[in-house]
């Protein structure tokens, strides 16, 4: 194979900020830990995504904002909200619900220079003409929807509803290999477990490329995406893996949150000031309009089931790590690890939804679960169970940030990330000490942590494509037509100067970066972030936070710093216009609770 650079992108689904042991967790993730600790690696503590899945994936593959790439809103929400449709019922630009043709996608751009493949979740289109194959991947084996049973279990069909309507089925399995739709009963491997199978397919494509010297792409460097569905609900794992965590979470989510904060501090990922601030802050005990009972107020059975759900979640993360280890071991055996750019990250914050509180379309979700799954304590985690762990466990994983997935606060958009590329990082890497502790913003190689290097520089998922193209020495086609169509430029920036050590920040303190999803709005410039959260979830006014001192976004400085807020609101207006934000109708804040697989 070509000496490279090759590219391996690994995305975990709904993984929390502190869910890896290299990020302060009690969950065993030895393979990702050794990746983080390698001489040519760095952990990113300020990596930001969208607040939900498919918008993030559109940004990753396009290098631009989700409102430009087709996922200005979740496809599942677009179908229910007429504001995103024109008078003829067609999707408005940026709200197509698929990766649109106004952007050039990563595999399309690399088609003539690299062999490209994807194994795992897609969530950027449900048809052949919006599939990974259609968007340029030479090989693909993918789950098209936003989630699926990790064991490929589908409840047996029951009698048709008495009202004659179609029987409700939640997220039917839809898999494709290249341009062929797979029969989930006949064509999928047996036994099936998502992390294992996706890695099997990734390694199959890699091995084919490595060994077949007659292939038209032979000798090229490669770019392989591994997009796992773990640890997205339904929480399911092998009983032997779950048993390793038996009793570990019996003290409840607030105790775990305190442990995770200490772990983050020991790992060099948060300063003492952030630890102290988070210790003194409260955790939200509401979801939508529901008041949540505190741990001690739950019955013994409720606590046991909640703990088992968290044990299952931890087992999923460990099993995911084991599967990823097979990829890393293969690259090391083949001697290509040092010539491969590896990027691992989550797609959004930890999932804190209470699915029983969500008005899922098409049927009564709680009734469907009760009729088709066994969620008894002994069965939690098995193929025919369907559980989730809720907002309090999620906030243990997103601390010191506030909230979780689907929120525009840091808990929804700040994700764990590990970047590995020895040609740039082995000799000189950013090790950014936190200015809140009185240190310089960045000092290369000054105090290397035993768990590996750390960068506190602000980065975004939009930066990944510019970085890959920079390293591959492949220009982005804008402003020229691409495949006969006009395309948009990238909004992300290459991280190569940061990795090389020639700059301390990927994004300057004067650059404004915006987010919007489900009507929640945010704009950031350096340390300052303005947030607008509609009622009933928020105050429905602009709030201002100093993230350098208050990463939990708890102290609203809007009245104290009116000039800073005014400038950020002006930045928001510019961002809103540039990317074409369409806000949902007033009173539809519950959109983010309207569909689960984000």
From TrEMBL:
GO molecular function, a single term: arylsulfatase activity
Provenance organism: Tilletia horrida
Domain Sulfatase N-terminal: residue ranges: 5-472
Database matches in InterPro entries: Alkaline_phosphatase_core_sf (IPR017850), Sulfatase (IPR050738), Sulfatase_N (IPR000917)
Name by which UniProt lists this protein: Sulfatase N-terminal domain-containing protein
Origin: domain of life: Eukaryota
Entries under SUPFAM superfamilies matching the protein: Alkaline phosphatase-like
Family recorded in the similarity comment: Belongs to the sulfatase family.
């Amino acid at each position: 194979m070509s000496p490279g650079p090759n590219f391996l992108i690994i995305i975990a689904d709904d993984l929390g900020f502190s869910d890896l042991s290299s990020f302060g967790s009690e969950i065993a993730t030895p393979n990702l830990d050794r990746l983080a600790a390698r001489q040519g690696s760095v952990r990113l503590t300020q990596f930001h995504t969208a607040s939900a899945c498919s918008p993030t994936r559109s940004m990753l593959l396009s290098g631009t904002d989700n409102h430009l790439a087709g996922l200005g809103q979740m496809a599942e929400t677009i179908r229910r909200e007429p504001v995103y449709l024109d008078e003829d019922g067609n999707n408005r630009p940026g709200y197509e619900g698929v990766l649109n043709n106004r952007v050039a996608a990563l595999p399309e751009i690399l088609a003539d220079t690299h062999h490209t493949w994807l194994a795992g979740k897609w969530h950027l289109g449900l048809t052949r003409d919006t599939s990974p194959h259609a968007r340029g991947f030479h090989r693909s084996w993918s789950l098209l929807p936003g989630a699926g049973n990790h064991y490929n279990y589908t409840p047996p069909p029951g009698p048709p509803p008495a009202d004659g309507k179609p029987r409700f089925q939640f997220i039917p399995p839809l898999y494709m290999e290249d341009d062929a739709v797979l029969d989930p009963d006949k064509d999928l491997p047996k036994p099936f477990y998502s992390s294992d199978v996706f890695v099997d397919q990734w390694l199959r494509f890699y091995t084919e490329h490595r060994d077949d010297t007659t292939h038209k792409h032979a000798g090229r460097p490669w770019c392989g995406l591994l997009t796992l569905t773990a640890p997205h609900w339904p929480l399911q794992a092998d009983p032997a893996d779950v048993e390793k965590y038996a009793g570990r979470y019996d003290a409840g989510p607030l105790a775990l949150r305190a442990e995770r904060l200490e772990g983050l501090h020991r790992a060099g990922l948060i300063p003492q000031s952030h630890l102290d601030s988070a210790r003194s802050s409260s955790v939200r005990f509401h979801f939508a309009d529901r008041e949540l009972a505190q741990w001690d107020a739950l019955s013994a059975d409720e606590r046991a089931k909640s703990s088992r759900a968290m044990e299952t979640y931890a087992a999923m993360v460990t099993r995911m790590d084991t599967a990823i280890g097979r990829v890393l071991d293969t690259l090391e055996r083949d001697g290509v690890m040092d010539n491969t750019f590896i990027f691992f990250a989550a797609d959004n914050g930890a999932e804190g939804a209470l699915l029983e509180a969500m008005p899922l379309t098409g049927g009564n979700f709680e009734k469907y679960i009760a009729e088709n799954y066994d969620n008894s304590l002994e069965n939690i985690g098995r193929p025919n169970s369907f559980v989730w762990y809720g907002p309090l466990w999620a906030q243990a994983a997103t601390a010191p940030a506030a909230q979780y997935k689907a929120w525009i606060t840091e808990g929804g958009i700040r994700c764990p990330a590990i970047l590995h590329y020895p040609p740039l990082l082995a000799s000189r890497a950013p090790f950014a000490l936190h200015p809140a502790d009185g240190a310089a913003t960045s000092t290369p190689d000054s105090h290397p942590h035993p768990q590996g290097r750390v960068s506190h520089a602000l980065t975004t998922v939009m930066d990944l494509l510019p970085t890959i193209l920079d390293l591959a020495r492949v220009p982005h086609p804008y402003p020229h037509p691409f495949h006969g169509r006009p395309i948009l430029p990238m909004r992300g920036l290459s991280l190569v100067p940061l990795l090389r050590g020639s700059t301390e920040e990927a994004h300057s303190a004067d650059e404004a970066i915006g987010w919007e999803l489900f009507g929640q709005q945010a704009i950031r410039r350096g340390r300052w972030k303005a947030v607008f959260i509609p009622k009933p979830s928020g105050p429905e006014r602009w709030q201002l936070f100093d993230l350098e001192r208050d990463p939990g976004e708890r102290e609203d400085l809007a009245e104290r710093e009116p000039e800073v807020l005014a400038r950020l609101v002006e930045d928001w207006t510019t961002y809103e216009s540039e990317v074409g934000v369409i806000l949902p109708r007033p009173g539809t804040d519950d959109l983010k609770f309207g569909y689960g697989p984000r």
